[in-house]
Amino acid sequence: MSRPVPAVFGSVFHAEMPVIAFQNGAWQPVEWQSSQDLTLAPGAHALHYGSECFEGLKAFRQADGKIVMFRPTANIARMQQSADILHLPKPEAEAFLDALIELVKRAADEIPDAPAALYLRPTLIGTDPIIGKAGAPSDTALLYILASPVGDYFKVGSPVKILVETENIRCAPHMGRVKCGGNYASAMPWVLKAKAEYGASQVLFCPNGDVQETGASNFILINGNELITKPLTDEFLHGVTRDSVLTVAKDLGYKVTERNFTVSELKAAIENGAEAVLTGTAAVISPVTSFIFEGQEVEVKSQERGNALRKAITDIQFGLAEDKYGWLVEVC
Ligand SMILES: *Cc1c(COP(=O)(O)O)cnc(C)c1O
């Protein structure tokens, strides 16, 4: 049976979604609702004061027909951390995982074959209908999960041109670890400017020359046999893919170094033949094809190691390589 892959990423949703409400100081039992609309008070806290965070993870149909999710407990832990920093009620891990599993089971027939997948988008919003709470957290919240069949986000051979930005920051430094819409709104002017002025696909944020991440993905420099990436700080999002790539790379014999590095070090390495990749759930790994440093484009000569690392991860996801780290959760 062939299942359709929607042309636009994230534009088609499974008909229903699990919704878990936080009311009267407690998480309530899950309810299943239509994913077509959501009833909210126009004064809802999330709509006015940004009490919103989200997650992104995937479920896959493997060659033998089994359906698996990739590292859902890492995403649950990260949403708990985002909730903590945003002063939203912290989702309960067990009910959250149960809702994910049930959703993937219900949507199983809609999951396209490899290399496509089912993208899952848990969303947590503050719902107090009180616009006077500008400086106070929401006492009520909703956690709901969208499921969206998606094609392969990654297109072999398509250019990944990165604008290196040293003046503007992606988001307020203390918010970097939070996966929230507010940070995307904050990065939007620089992302649009990079597209319009340079045809760049992403902006690499490097405040004062410190290489951090792009608007939606982490950044790893592959210099010969060494992977170099920024150590985990509050300023950027701690990606599950970043962690997976570093783990797999170590096993493949790479040296993995988590340390700060500068734009001038990056530029010198690229000019000397180093590779660089972006990591994130949607595309897994996107090898960079060129950088723009102060208006000057520098080609990245090779994407070979990045592509091999990408395959090492997707082989685990699609059941073509052993899941030796216990990353897969079997759904059905
Ligand atoms: C989601 C996200 C990433 C990638 O995280 P993964 O867990 O690998 O998908 C990186 N940076 C930002 C800003 C993000 O929002």
Automatic annotation (TrEMBL):
It holds the Pfam family Aminotran_4. GO terms for biological process: isoleucine biosynthetic process; L-leucine biosynthetic process; L-valine biosynthetic process. Keywords: Aminotransferase, Pyridoxal phosphate, Transferase. The keyword Transferase applies. SUPFAM superfamilies: D-aminoacid aminotransferase-like PLP-dependent enzymes (SSF56752). It catalyses: L-leucine + 2-oxoglutarate = 4-methyl-2-oxopentanoate + L-glutamate; L-isoleucine + 2-oxoglutarate = (S)-3-methyl-2-oxopentanoate + L-glutamate; L-valine + 2-oxoglutarate = 3-methyl-2-oxobutanoate + L-glutamate. Its EC number is 2.6.1.42. It comes from the Bacteria. One of its GO terms (molecular function) is L-valine-2-oxoglutarate transaminase activity. The keyword Transferase applies. The modification N6-(pyridoxal phosphate)lysine is found at K179. It is an enzyme of class 2 (transferase). Pathway: Amino-acid biosynthesis; L-isoleucine biosynthesis; L-isoleucine from 2-oxobutanoate: step 4/4; Amino-acid biosynthesis; L-valine biosynthesis; L-valine from pyruvate: step 4/4; Amino-acid biosynthesis; L-leucine biosynthesis; L-leucine from 3-methyl-2-oxobutanoate: step 4/4. Its cofactor is pyridoxal 5'-phosphate. Acts on leucine, isoleucine and valine. Belongs to the class-IV pyridoxal-phosphate-dependent aminotransferase family. This is branched-chain-amino-acid transaminase. The lineage of its organism: Bacteria, Pseudomonadati, Pseudomonadota, Betaproteobacteria, Neisseriales. The gene is ilvE.
